[in-house]
Amino acid sequence: xxxxxYTFNHRNLHNVSLGQGxxxxxxxALDLAAKEGHWxxxxxxxxxxxxxxxxxxxxxxxxxxxxxxxxxxxxxxPAPCPESHIIPQxxxxxxxxxxxxxPTGMHANLHKALDNFSQDTLEMCSQEKEFRSILFALCYFxxxxxxxxKFGAQGWxxxxxxxxxxxxxxxxxxxxxxxxxxxVPYDDLRYLVGEIMYGGHITDDWDRRLCKTYxxxxxxxxxxxxxxxxxxxxxxxxxxxxxxxxxxxxxFLPPESPHLYxxxxxxxxxxxxQRSERxxxxxxxxxxxxxxxxxxxxxxxxxxxxxxxxxxxxxxxxEFSMAELVAKVEGRTPYAVVALQECERMNALTAEMRRSLxxxxxxxx
Length: 365
Known about the structure:
Blueprint: E1 13-17, H1 23-36, E2 39-43, H2 52-62, E3 71-74, H3 89-93, H4 105-114, H5 119-123, H6 128-147, H7 164-180, H8 186-197, H9 205-218, E4 229-231, E5 234-235, H10 242-252, H11 268-286, H12 301-315, H13 322-328, H14 334-364
Parallel strand pairs: 1-2, 2-3
Antiparallel strand pairs: 4-5
Helix pairs in contact: 1-2, 4-6, 4-10, 6-7, 6-9, 7-8, 8-9, 12-14
């Protein structure tokens, strides 16, 4: 708040979670905040489709004459398909969109997992070598289970909400166990991470077995002897500092492939096909609609507009020469004055038509 030049406390912030008849509360909060210069956060606006029209009108009314510090923040889940796009265009066009996109690919996911920690995290345990090695393996494990969802049923039988909280809690458990024991309790760590932290989300027996197998491969005594590969061509790094681990990922992580997840290369055929179809579907949505089915119409909408544009430009008459007209008028009768005024207006109209048609032609090109 201070960086934006605006200081607020809990009385200056109105947080409304929409749904269950909270629309009236939201409207009152908006009116009050507009007068007092408060901030309003409206959460889950995708749950109140019928009310969004009223919200659009209210925001339009409040856009004029409101306090200069008045702000409105809206949150919504992404729509699963174009038919679910229910937020009015007026709201979207007057908003600044802020979105948090999940990382894609092993490279981005591994960096993102490591970003949850710092150099201080790496130095906080007395058994530094063991802690750093297992922590990096946990980061790789987290990246694998999170990104494996993209493979659909070949990844997980059911999609699970694995989060960074699971990773950070697992790191805390690792720290506590290593501080309390001189030996690394591999079995206990695998059980707590695979059966409780991450396993708490898993409801399918085969998925639970898969999670357990990953941990058996990633967390075992060989990891401290430099003999463990997290993926083909990607050995577990040794004792490095925080920036060194990030650099190691950039330098040595193999290109994105199912091998990084222990899967056969054919596993990504379905994923790539689905993504290609989604891209092509989006491109087709952006194309102009085909108007060839209309009587007498030929080609796309753009071609029809171009034909009409050329026709209108041909029909546009040249502007009147006001100097010549004034010279021809012998007496300024009421009729002549009105005629000259209409000629001036016609010139203005013709000029505007030419200008806007030229802009349209540039837009089509």
